[in-house]
Design goal:
By secondary structure, the protein is mainly beta. It has a single domain, classed as AttH-like fold. It is built from no helices and 22 strands. Strands 13, 14, 15, 16, 17, 18, 19, 20, 21 and 22 form a ten-stranded antiparallel beta sheet that branches. It is globular and about 60 Å long.
């Protein structure tokens, strides 16, 4: 997102729902005191010019309607953080805290990109380690960003993900490296690699290339290379994150460098910490210069994600 002053911002607003009871275990009698899942959300703003990264977390049982998910005009909410959709198909997003806030309207310019094979995004071999996952990769975005007492009009583009699964990680996996990029030629890229305890990469890792017309192509783990080029150690969690990357996709004649907008974009949360933030991407495709902007997510470096391991 960019303000008329030229100031640049990245943002993240993610709503999570973690199941506690399976469908078979759920009591048919509805009760506010029997909770089948937990809701939580993460909200961040990256202020590139101010060199500041701000983050907040909210959690709720949702027993009294203060948090939830729906398929109506209000899709997800927790307290005063909300994501909605109007009759025209535009998304409306709002999150407000004492030191930061966003109020944004998003309109998708491309069809959904469905990841994986036949709608299944595999995360490990064996039954149960997969998800259904799709993205709206290019949403025109208008609205405002507030930092402290400074309120700025902004415009730009956003990326929307929706993913749901049973168990994500296999016992031998510790985390993942995930990247999304919107390039200046109208194409997009999503890649992830699942990391094993011995620091190798699971063969189930994959990605998606999206052409300018919205056509999505599945990328197997052998179709691309993700090589870390620079590391940053957190003084809070002591985790050492690979925040710079070289990406190569030979069949697309793509070779790019991924560079963080800020080194410190760690969400130092309990019980886990992870790094997710805005990145710049620069390189070549078919021998011609190409640039992009995106987001990088790095998990499992502050410790394995035990809640997702089964």
């Amino acid at each position: 997102l960019t303000a008329p002053t030229g100031e640049r911002f990245g943002y993240q607003l993610t709503f999570f729902r973690q199941g506690i009871r399976s469908a078979a275990e759920r009591d048919p009698q509805a009760s506010r005191f029997i909770v089948n899942d937990l809701k939580f959300a993460h909200f961040t703003i990256t202020d590139a010019a101010g060199e500041q990264f701000r983050f907040q977390q909210k959690t709720s049982r949702g027993a009294f309607g203060d948090a939830g998910f729906d398929d109506g005009d209000r899709l997800a909410w927790i307290d005063n953080w909300t994501l909605g959709k109007d009759e025209s198909g535009k998304f409306h997003l709002r999150a407000e805290e004492a030191d930061m806030a966003v109020t944004l309207q998003l309109e998708s310019k491309k069809p959904p990109a469905i990841h994986g094979l036949e709608g299944v995004s595999e995360k490990a071999s064996g039954k149960g380690h997969a998800s259904h996952y799709y993205s709206l990769t290019r949403l025109t975005t208008l609205g405002s960003v507030r930092l402290g007492n400074k309120d700025l009009r902004v415009q730009g583009e956003s990326w929307f993900d929706h993913e749901w699964a049973t168990n994500q990680l296999a016992p031998e996996q510790v985390g993942w490296d995930w990247l999304s990029v919107a390039f200046d030629d109208g194409t997009e890229l999503m890649l992830y690699q699942m990391r094993l305890k011995d620091s190798s990469t699971d063969a189930a890792s994959s990605g998606t290339w999206i052409d300018a017309d919205g056509t999505a192509a599945h990328l197997t783990s052998s179709a691309y290379r993700m090589l870390p080029t620079r590391w940053w150690r957190s003084s809070t969690s002591a985790a050492n994150y690979p925040i710079g990357w070289q990406i190569e996709i030979p069949e697309r004649s793509l070779r790019v460098e991924v560079r963080p907008v800020l080194d410190n974009q760690e969400l130092s949360l309990a019980p886990l910490a992870y790094w997710e933030g805005a990145v710049d991407v620069i390189g070549t495709r078919d021998g011609h210069p190409i640039k992009g902007r995106g987001y990088l997510e790095l998990t499992g470096y502050a410790g394995p994600l035990r809640e997702l391991q089964r």
